[in-house]
Structures are given as C-alpha cells and as structure tokens.
Amino acid sequence: MRLSRYFLPVLKETPKEAEIISHQLMLRAGMVRQQAAGSYSWLPLGLKVLNKIVRIIEEEQNRSGAIQLLMPTLQSADLWRESGRYDAYGKEMLRIKDRHERDMLYGPTNEEMITDIFRGFVRSYKDLPLNLYHVQWKFRDEVRPRFGTMRSREFLMKDAYSFDLDEASAVKAYYRMFVAYLRTFHRMGLTAIPMRADTGPIGGNLSHEFIILAETGESAVFCHADLLDKPIPAIDTDFCGDLEPIFQDWTSLYAATEEMVDMPAFEADVPEHKRLSARGIEVGHIFYFGTKYSEPMKATVTGPDGKDVTVHMGSYGIGPSRLVPAVIEASHDEAGIVWPVSVAPFEAVVINLKVGDSASDSACEELYARLESEGIDVAYDDRDQGAGGKFATADLIGIPYQLIVGPRGLKEGMAEIKHRKSGERETLPIGDAVNRLKTLIIPQRRDAV
Amino acid sequence: MRLSRYFLPVLKETPKEAEIISHQLMLRAGMVRQQAAGSYSWLPLGLKVLNKIVRIIEEEQNRSGAIQLLMPTLQSADLWRESGRYDAYGKEMLRIKDRHERDMLYGPTNEEMITDIFRGFVRSYKDLPLNLYHVQWKFRDEVRPRFGTMRSREFLMKDAYSFDLDEASAVKAYYRMFVAYLRTFHRMGLTAIPMRADTGPIGGNLSHEFIILAETGESAVFCHADLLDKPIPAIDTDFCGDLEPIFQDWTSLYAATEEMVDMPAFEADVPEHKRLSARGIEVGHIFYFGTKYSEPMKATVTGPDGKDVTVHMGSYGIGPSRLVPAVIEASHDEAGIVWPVSVAPFEAVVINLKVGDSASDSACEELYARLESEGIDVAYDDRDQGAGGKFATADLIGIPYQLIVGPRGLKEGMAEIKHRKSGERETLPIGDAVNRLKTLIIPQRRDAV
C-alpha cells in the first residue's frame, strides 16, 4: 500500500477524551474514530489489525474442531422470554420495536439463538459433540462506555457454543476451548493466564477468564510466576485426544483476579519468591453451564438407549475489538505502538527519504514491488514529506520493520533496517534487504507459531 | 472438512414458505435458517459461499483503488438530521432509543456517516481522489420481507463512497467503480449488465443498476444482445488510466429495466434480431450525486487556489447476502445448486462409497489429505450412509467436482470424477485423480479470472 494513496489520518496531539494509552494511541495512529458514545468506526489501519486478530481466532477455533456460522445481530425477544433472560438482563440489553411493534433486541450474546438453531436441526446423540461459533457485532448499552474499543457499546465478539450428551463430554469440550484459547493469545504475542472466574449472568459452575498481563491493566491479578513460562500447546496438539493433562497443568498453579483472590490461600499455595501480583486485562471468558438453556428451551437429542437427553452446553467468548487495545496496552513505548508481526497492520514499511530524487524513487519502487511479490505485507511511504515526520509515523503506527532508503546511502549501495521493537538498526547492501526482511518476518508470522 | 464432523443440516422436503428456487435450495442445502421475519442465520455452508463472494468484492474494490474501513451498524440520529434524511426516510429505517433516550438508528446506508468521517479528517484537495468502502450488516425494515436472503431486513452490503474536487473527477471515480463492478460479477460466474437507473432516495443525476440475467429474475429487462458477449475489462486494467472508453462502450448499447424502458426507443435503437427481453435481478447500484450530502454537512477541502470547495460524491453498493441467492437463480438444475468454482463452498468432494471398507477408507483418506495439501478446498463425505444419499447431497449443495471412490473401482485401481455442471463422468486411474482435479479447478478460481 502506497501511503500517498492511503487513508491514514494520524494526529499530532493526544486527544483529551482518551484516558488510557491504547485509546490515545489508537486515535493518534488513525486506527479508529468515535461516532457516538461507545461506538467506533475502524479506519483502514485499525481494520487491518482487527482482521488479523480475527483470522488467528478463526484458525484456532477451526483447529479445535469448532465450526463457523453467522447469526444475525438482531434477535427476536421471544427466544429470550423462553430462557427467562428477557426481563432479567437489565438495561444493558438494547431493546427495539420494529415497524409492526414486535419486540426485538440487539444481541448482547447468543446462547438462546444458538440453542434454537441446535434444537431445530439436531436429533441424535450421533451428531455430538458439536461446537458452533461465530464472529459478529454485539451491543451492550453500558451506562458509561469508556476506554475506546476496550469497553465500547458496539463490539465484535467471537462466541462459541458447545453441545454434548453429558457432563463428562461437555468438560472435554471445555478443555478443547481452553487449549485453543492458550494458543490463540500466544499467537498474538500475548501472555494470557487462565484464572478461575465467577460465572455471572451467563450462569453455570465452571468458568475461566483469560487475563493478559499489562502494566496498565484494569484489574489486579495474583498468580504463581511459573505461569508466565509455561509452554503453550503446540500446533500439532491432537484435539481429539486427552487434553485434561494440559488443563490440570495450567490450573494447578494459583491464579486469581482481585474479585476472586483469597489472599491467605495465595500466600499458602505460592512460595514467596514465586508470588506475582500484576495488572491484567480480561480478553476471553469460557463457561460450562450444563442444561441452563437447553432445559427451558427443550434442546434434546435421542440418546443411545432411544430416550431423550437434554444436552449439556458451554459458551466461549473472545472480544477481537477489545484485543486490539489489549495488545497495545501490552506492547508500546513512548514513540507509539509496537506490534507483534502476527497482528501488525503492515509487516514492513519502505521509507523513501527523498521523494522526487530519481535514484531514491526507483530504488524504493523496486524494493516495494519485490517485497509485495514475495508476499510481505508492506507499506511504501512515498509521501512528499520530511524524513522526521515519516520516522515518527512509522514508529507511532508500530510497523515492525522500517526499510530506510535515501540518496546518501544509495551512493554506497546501502540501505538501513530499523527494528521497531528493539530500536536496533542495521546497514546492509540494498540487494540484501528483501531477503533480510523475509528472514526476520516469516518466522514471526501468525501461521508460524 | 469431514462431513461426519460438519454441520450440514440438509432437508429432504422443500419448505413451504419458500417461494423462489434460490430460497428453497438455500434452505434445503442447509445454508441458512430463518430466525425472524427477514432475518437469517448463515449456517456453515452458506457462510463459506458468502465469504467467498465478499472476498471477490474486496479484491476488486482494492484493485480499483478504494480503501476499506468499517463503520458501526448503529448510527446517531443527529447525523441524519443534518442531511435532512432522518424524517424523510420513512418506516424502513429502524429507529432505536438507547438507555439515555438518545435517538439512534440501525444504518440502512452510510452516506451521512462517511461524510462525517471525511470532514473530520480531510482538509486539502491534495488528499483527493478518495474512495472509502466497507462491508457491513445493514437493516431496512421492509413491510413484507420475502424471498429469503434476496430481500431480507438484515442484509450484508458493500458500500463505497467517493470524494472528488469537481464533477469531472467524480465521474472518473464513477467509471472506476463501473469497471470494478463488471469484473466483480464476472468473477462470480454472472452475466451482469449495467442499466441506466433512477436515483431514488439516494439522489443525484447519474446512476446505473447492474442486473444479472436469470430466468427466475424479479423484473423484466430489455437490452441489446451484444451486451451478453462484451469482453470484461482484464485483470491488468489500469485504474489510474482513462476508463471512459470502457464506460462508453458498455453504455452505448440499449439496456433498461421495465421501470425505465422506453419501448419505441428500444425498437428504434436495436435491430430486431438483437432485441433481448429477459428476466433480471439487481445485484449492484452506483450513484453520482454531486454535493447532495457534502453541501448540508459542510464537507469541504481547500482547493488549489486556497478557497474552500464542497466535494463531489458518489456511492456504490453491492449486496453479498443477495448475491448468494442471485448466483443460485442463475445457476441450478433439478438436482440442486450448480456453483461456479469461484464461489463454491467446496471446490471438490471425495465421496467414499463404502465407509468401513478398509481399502475405500484408506484410499479416500489419502486422496483427501493430498487434495488438502495441494490447497484444494475439499470436503470428504466420510459419513456412514448409502451412496444414493451422498450423491444427492453432493448434487444438492452443488460442489463442482465429485471424486467417487469405492471398492469395485479400487480393485481396478480406478476412481470416477463427476462434473456437477455438465453431468460428465470420467473414470481414471486413482493415482491421476489429484492432478486431474487441480487441472480442472485452478483455472476457474476467483483469482484466475
């Protein structure tokens, strides 16, 4: 993408309304624009990151055996009356009347609708286990939306729903999502720790939150420091196999948010030098809730003995529109965002130090074309601007590698690569630049982990 | 994808509520499920087709120079009061009050919001031309939604918006979209004809509908038969170059829908043997409307002479959730859907005629694995069912190529490929099957056209 033809409205000033660093940086980097309270447009740079995050989530959901579909944003109130949640849900649910005065609502979650789909089609235990997920916009009418897309009213969510014949199978489904979530966050460059959680309005009796550590996190967390170094389940993990050992391994060490922490237990369980208290951001939440929805909504299958069995369910949420700021909270410096390659809007940017200089222009054009043809997601800063502004923009928007080309270096046949994260700079023959960038980038890609 | 683990709820009976063939087939093939009047869930098979259609649209939008962003589904009523459309739009607009009694609406289109984004960031004529698009769910509260996703209330739309300094540049932007649309529909296997159209509530003075021909189309169309054979602009079309000749070439021949047709003019313009009257479905609509929104909403830039100039705009819509049934209307037979490879949910299906037979199972597993590793989007029908049901399902859901493997053929080392469209069958050595499928499929892919 040539930046001269792109839509990248970076801001010089930090907007006053933004309280947290991710919100400030997303506005400054031209990633989002507020349209109403808690409602954002995703500008081109922000949308690219959001889409890369969604792709990682989808790949790991598919790998675990979940199947993607898509439910509409608006739902009929009748389904929610069946489960008893229509009146219970409170003012966060956006209630709507259509032109025929029918009660509808903008879905804040989809347990009812997916249960309705299930009971409409699935008849036999032979069709289980089944895990269906979608990635769709949802709406929760928070009294005071804040922190940009970290807590917006209209937000994107991946929500999966598992259906099993009994509790034992349902817990296996829970383990599959547990492992998929560990891999998902790891591939975005995040350190995510599963913590036993309250089930809240979703209900049920087994639940974990996935919390990523970030100095600017919203809540305090208390955990065993070894959780930071635990190996992540590998890409060839057999999701049809026994995942309980992985689950036990991860949950045997103490980890709790401030809402759930029992300080005496924390201190008893964890040796003092291993006690980690830090700040965290919730980025995922998984629930097993048995027959809470299948019972009132009569979602049953015929069991092996010919009798009807009410299915056991779980639900599993990740918020991609919240993960974008969460990654920024976990990875930034004074100059701006520091994207991991796996979710960066561009993997590299070619910076032309002197647009209009024919040697610079032709060298940059050639590098840009070669990087594109090698499949690198590359931007080309071909704007007629000073070098200082270009460096500041590249740093601010967090592109992992800057390939800097100008007349002075070109005279010697040299270019420079700046590593955004470490600040390291390397000068190298211009003919080596493409291969060098490939060597740096490809091992860090989302499909490489 | 193994069909034994997929969610593919095909129906044996044609649902009574479905009036048109595409709606019947989408329900029978397990592509969608109705959730409320005019509201559908996209089941896994349907979502795969929808996503492939969206990808083609995005690729052609990007190729033409348009830049993707994403606006929220809900909008503030205030923006629509600025343009004067809040009161004018009528009952099709779904009006909503949030918990603070603020007036909101579910966006039926986005001229106002994109104009607001534009005026918030763009200051200079140097930033033009600019074309911003998104693909987002929209809602129009039709009195009587019908025909499945062909005319649903919640529907997916790609809408692009162009901004230019003057009418001459705006018309060039219009030509770029005109050409992009010709390529877009062609890549989905559709014959789309641009027809001069009424501008309706969007307003403006230059507008074309893109109508695809289908026997079951909703409206009559009248055009010059040579439009069917016109060459489509090639993949290397220079969108920075002069596209007017292409526009003139396509619009010089008579073409009109029944609402716009002038029969005496049709008969005067078109020699009798070239007069085509057929049925058509509208799948895209483009508008140039000048300063209709930029004027009241004060979207201006500083011109070359330092004075403020009100920008000229156009908007350009395609409905992907409408295109899915439109492709089916244009391509089906008595046995079911006949997908073009470019949008087929799977490019091929391996049909195991005798699950449980060790020779069949191992041959199928190997073929399935090899096709996957060759990058073919392949399904494997490994369900423990009779051959008749498998053939019927493969035909119904319209997979372009069926690779049929069973014990009898295997004894001779042979398999069979059935071409869904022509009904042709070829028997070939099993070792040749993967290469033969690649030879058939790859040239028909969406990126090959």
Automatic annotation (TrEMBL), chains A, B:
Any one Pfam family match given in the protein's UniProt record, by short name: tRNA-synt_2b
GO BP annotation list: prolyl-tRNA aminoacylation
Keywords from the named record: Aminoacyl-tRNA synthetase, ATP-binding, Cytoplasm, Ligase, Nucleotide-binding, Protein biosynthesis
GO annotation, cellular component aspect: cytosol
Places the protein is found: Cytoplasm
Chain ranges of the Aminoacyl-transfer RNA synthetases class-II family profile domain: 38-340
TM regions (residue ranges): none
Domain of life: Bacteria
HAMAP family attached to this UniProt entry: Pro_tRNA_synth_type2
Subunit structure: Homodimer.
Family according to the record: Belongs to the class-II aminoacyl-tRNA synthetase family. ProS type 2 subfamily.
Listed name of the protein: Proline--tRNA ligase
